[in-house]
Amino acid sequence: MATFLEDGHLEIDNNRSERAIKPFVIGRKNWLFANTPRGARASAIAYSIVETAKENGLNPFAYLEYLLEKLPYMDTDDKAAMTALLPWSETLPAHIRRRK
Q1: Are 11 and 26 in contact (CB under 8 A)?
Q2: How many C-beta atoms lie closer than 10 Å to residue 96's C-beta?
Q3: Whose C-alpha in 6, 13, 50, 54 is 20 to 30 A from the C-alpha of 19?
Q4: Cβ(77)–Cβ(84) below 8 Å
């Protein structure tokens, strides 16, 4: 049975997710540093951060730059401070958000 027929909130296809990963599929031969498990893990983390930033209306470059400026000086065990860095945090600086 087609589950999307039972729940109107579900999309019929996964085109949105496929479009999100298309740039990585096209360029995969260029990313030779991911030829080890550690390289693949690092790539997956970076891609996840970028795509989550996009989904939350952030400029991915500005968000990564912000994270790389802040994280070295933070106590990563401080859950409140780490939560403030998440892409859906209301406390992120305005210049990171995409203009609508």
Answers
A1: no
A2: 21
A3: 6
A4: no
Q: What is the pLDDT of residues 2-27, one digit of tens each?
A: 666 677 776 777 777 777 777 767 66
CA dist., res. 58 & res. 73, Å (int)? 22
- Structure-block tokens of residue 24: 């990585």
Q: Is the pTM of this model over 0.90?
A: no
**Residues 73, 87: contact at Cβ < 8 Å?**
no
Q: How many CA atoms lie less than 13 Å away from 84 in the CB half-sphere?
A: 14
User: So what's the pLDDT on residue 23?
Assistant: 72
DSSP string of 40-65, one letter each residue: HHHHHHHHHHHHHHHHTTB-HHHHHH
